[in-house]
Amino acid sequence: MKINENTLLEGDKVVLVPYDAKHVPRYHEWMESPELQQLTASEPLTLDQEYAMQRSWREDDDKCTFIILAKQQWADGSVEEEQCMVGDVNIFLTDPTDPTLAELEIMIAEPAHRGKGIGREATHMMMSYGGPVEGTRVAKL
What we know:
Layout lengths: L6 E4 L3 E5 L5 H8 L2 H7 L6 H13 L3 E8 H6 L8 E9 L8 E7 L9 H10 L9 E4 L1
Antiparallel strand pairs: 1-2, 1-6, 2-3, 3-4, 4-5
Helix pairs in contact: 1-3
Protein backbone atom coordinates (compact mmCIF):
# COMPACT_ATOMS: atom_id res chain seq x y z
CA MET A 1 0.00 0.00 0.00
CA LYS A 2 1.52 3.26 -1.08
CA ILE A 3 0.03 5.15 1.87
CA ASN A 4 2.73 3.75 4.19
CA GLU A 5 5.69 3.98 1.81
CA ASN A 6 7.30 6.82 3.79
CA THR A 7 6.07 5.86 7.25
CA LEU A 8 8.09 4.62 10.20
CA LEU A 9 6.32 3.46 13.35
CA GLU A 10 8.44 3.37 16.49
CA GLY A 11 7.48 1.53 19.66
CA ASP A 12 9.37 0.50 22.78
CA LYS A 13 10.74 -2.78 21.39
CA VAL A 14 10.23 -2.56 17.65
CA VAL A 15 10.35 -0.26 14.68
CA LEU A 16 8.01 -0.90 11.76
CA VAL A 17 9.23 0.12 8.31
CA PRO A 18 7.62 -0.35 4.88
CA TYR A 19 8.52 -3.61 3.11
CA ASP A 20 11.08 -2.52 0.50
CA ALA A 21 13.06 -4.44 -2.12
CA LYS A 22 16.14 -4.34 0.14
CA HIS A 23 14.26 -6.57 2.63
CA VAL A 24 13.41 -9.28 0.10
CA PRO A 25 16.59 -11.42 0.31
CA ARG A 26 16.29 -11.82 4.09
CA TYR A 27 12.53 -12.35 3.86
CA HIS A 28 13.12 -14.98 1.19
CA GLU A 29 15.59 -16.79 3.47
CA TRP A 30 12.94 -16.92 6.18
CA MET A 31 10.31 -18.26 3.82
CA GLU A 32 12.56 -21.13 2.74
CA SER A 33 12.06 -22.56 6.24
CA PRO A 34 9.61 -25.49 6.24
CA GLU A 35 8.53 -24.44 9.75
CA LEU A 36 7.58 -20.92 8.62
CA GLN A 37 5.93 -22.26 5.47
CA GLN A 38 3.76 -24.48 7.66
CA LEU A 39 3.02 -21.78 10.26
CA THR A 40 2.07 -19.22 7.59
CA ALA A 41 0.37 -21.65 5.19
CA SER A 42 2.79 -20.45 2.49
CA GLU A 43 4.20 -22.10 -0.57
CA PRO A 44 7.90 -21.73 -1.41
CA LEU A 45 8.66 -18.98 -3.93
CA THR A 46 11.71 -18.27 -6.04
CA LEU A 47 13.63 -15.09 -5.27
CA ASP A 48 12.17 -13.48 -8.41
CA GLN A 49 8.65 -14.41 -7.29
CA GLU A 50 9.39 -12.95 -3.85
CA TYR A 51 10.43 -9.63 -5.45
CA ALA A 52 7.22 -9.65 -7.49
CA MET A 53 5.21 -10.32 -4.33
CA GLN A 54 6.92 -7.42 -2.54
CA ARG A 55 6.06 -5.08 -5.42
CA SER A 56 2.47 -6.32 -5.38
CA TRP A 57 2.13 -5.72 -1.64
CA ARG A 58 3.60 -2.24 -2.11
CA GLU A 59 1.25 -1.32 -4.97
CA ASP A 60 -2.01 -3.01 -3.93
CA ASP A 61 -4.62 -0.76 -2.34
CA ASP A 62 -5.88 -3.52 -0.02
CA LYS A 63 -2.59 -4.46 1.71
CA CYS A 64 -0.42 -2.60 4.20
CA THR A 65 2.84 -4.34 5.10
CA PHE A 66 5.60 -3.39 7.49
CA ILE A 67 8.83 -5.18 8.32
CA ILE A 68 9.42 -5.54 12.06
CA LEU A 69 12.87 -4.42 13.19
CA ALA A 70 14.40 -5.06 16.61
CA LYS A 71 14.59 -1.51 17.95
CA GLN A 72 17.71 -1.97 20.06
CA GLN A 73 19.71 -3.21 17.06
CA TRP A 74 18.17 -0.61 14.73
CA ALA A 75 18.97 2.25 17.14
CA ASP A 76 22.62 1.15 17.26
CA GLY A 77 23.15 2.68 13.83
CA SER A 78 26.11 0.47 12.99
CA VAL A 79 23.89 -2.48 12.05
CA GLU A 80 22.37 -2.72 8.57
CA GLU A 81 18.57 -2.48 8.63
CA GLU A 82 18.24 -5.92 7.03
CA GLN A 83 20.13 -7.43 9.98
CA CYS A 84 17.59 -5.91 12.39
CA MET A 85 14.66 -7.69 10.72
CA VAL A 86 12.71 -10.05 12.98
CA GLY A 87 9.39 -10.44 11.13
CA ASP A 88 6.53 -8.71 9.38
CA VAL A 89 3.03 -7.48 10.06
CA ASN A 90 0.26 -6.97 7.51
CA ILE A 91 -3.22 -5.54 7.31
CA PHE A 92 -5.40 -6.85 4.50
CA LEU A 93 -8.53 -4.83 3.82
CA THR A 94 -11.26 -7.42 3.34
CA ASP A 95 -14.19 -5.27 2.17
CA PRO A 96 -13.55 -2.52 -0.42
CA THR A 97 -16.73 -0.73 0.68
CA ASP A 98 -15.76 -0.66 4.38
CA PRO A 99 -12.13 0.23 5.21
CA THR A 100 -12.78 -0.56 8.88
CA LEU A 101 -12.91 -4.29 8.12
CA ALA A 102 -9.51 -5.95 7.86
CA GLU A 103 -7.45 -8.99 8.65
CA LEU A 104 -4.18 -8.59 10.55
CA GLU A 105 -1.35 -11.09 10.22
CA ILE A 106 1.96 -11.15 12.05
CA MET A 107 5.05 -13.31 11.74
CA ILE A 108 8.00 -13.29 14.11
CA ALA A 109 10.38 -15.17 11.84
CA GLU A 110 13.47 -15.04 14.03
CA PRO A 111 13.09 -17.69 16.77
CA ALA A 112 15.37 -15.79 19.17
CA HIS A 113 12.88 -12.91 19.16
CA ARG A 114 9.76 -14.97 19.90
CA GLY A 115 8.14 -14.89 23.32
CA LYS A 116 9.48 -11.41 24.15
CA GLY A 117 6.38 -9.30 23.52
CA ILE A 118 7.53 -8.15 20.09
CA GLY A 119 4.50 -9.62 18.36
CA ARG A 120 2.16 -8.09 20.89
CA GLU A 121 3.68 -4.64 20.47
CA ALA A 122 3.73 -4.84 16.65
CA THR A 123 0.10 -6.00 16.62
CA HIS A 124 -0.95 -3.13 18.88
CA MET A 125 0.93 -0.66 16.71
CA MET A 126 -0.72 -1.92 13.53
CA MET A 127 -4.19 -1.94 15.08
CA SER A 128 -3.66 1.66 16.12
CA TYR A 129 -1.93 2.77 12.92
CA GLY A 130 -3.34 6.07 11.78
CA GLY A 131 -4.17 7.47 15.21
CA PRO A 132 -2.28 8.59 18.29
CA VAL A 133 -0.99 5.69 20.36
CA GLU A 134 0.68 5.97 23.73
CA GLY A 135 4.31 4.88 23.43
CA THR A 136 4.30 4.93 19.62
CA ARG A 137 5.87 7.60 17.45
CA VAL A 138 4.96 7.92 13.78
CA ALA A 139 7.54 9.56 11.55
CA LYS A 140 7.85 10.15 7.84
CA LEU A 141 10.98 8.63 6.31
